[in-house]
Amino acid sequence: MRIPFVAGNWKMNTTAAEAERLVFEMLERLDRIEGVEKVVCPPFVSLVGISMMLQSSSIKLGAQNMYFEIKGAYTGEISPLMLRELCEFVILGHSERRMHFGETDEIVNKKVGAALANKLRPILCVGERLEENEAGKTEEVVERQVTAALRGVEPVHDLVIAYEPVWAIGTGRAASGKQAGVAIQFIRGVVAKLWNRSMAQDLRILYGGSVSGANITEFISHPEIDGALVGGASLNAEEFVGIVEKTAEIKRKIK
């Protein structure tokens, strides 16, 4: 059975002091939860401090982005070489990166390759915009994004995919568990065509988009959904711990 996975994407929130306080508030309870891979993804400025806090815990650390070059004249960018001493995971292809910073499928592909080459585990985000969803193009969009992102990438177990419909991110309008499950099942089929059926079945695919303590049960109860990429709710220690606890409990029952 695929190990459930819950990651918190803090986005551009928390100062370094606030980030460490947030980790402190949930560290003990989160560390005790078994059967779920737990990841927090704070802003770059907090990675060093939080990596030290998590050293002896079961909680893992992720970055929210990276550039695909190792080093060079790329002012303001962070390379995989810089991250791999601090993090195990890195979020790539998030819709906010695509929307606000012009990241293309080609750029995402380069980042995925660079992350894997430098022993970082990508959390690859894919998902359609509202107008694409309403036009019935969800499958077309996510197939294009997954296929482009994995072009030239050898089958690996170090990849996690997050299906995040753009219309659900930060809007309070989450997809239903059934909608998310159907999309994730389709993504698994795309990966099976690109790699093979066995790898696709082993791959963990998450749902992200207005995930909360109130709706996590609906998502985690679906057999195709292996966890969640949590946005705003991950900034609340009590709620994020609750989401992880519910994930562990429900997946144990399913197992």
CATH homologous superfamily (4th level) name: Aldolase class I
- The class by helix and strand makeup works out as alpha/beta
Whole-number count of domains: 1
Q: What is the gyration radius calculated from CA atoms?
A: 17 Å
Could you spell the SSE succession in H and E letters? EHEHEHEHHEHHEHHEHEH
What is the fold-level CATH name, i.e. the topology? TIM Barrel
Fraction in beta strands: 5-15%
CATH architecture: Alpha-Beta Barrel
Care to give the gist of this entry?
The chain is α/β, with parallel strands linked by helices.
Characterise this structure.
Helix 1 (16-32) runs parallel beside helix 11 (237-254) and helix 5 (105-117) packs across helix 7. The chain is globular. It has one domain: Alpha-Beta Barrel (TIM Barrel). It has eleven helices and eight strands. It has 255 residues and is an alpha/beta fold. Helices cover 44% and strands 15% of the residues. An eight-stranded parallel beta barrel has the order 1-2-3-4-5-6-7-8, surrounded by six helices. Strand 7 (204-208), helix 10 and strand 8 form a beta-alpha-beta unit.
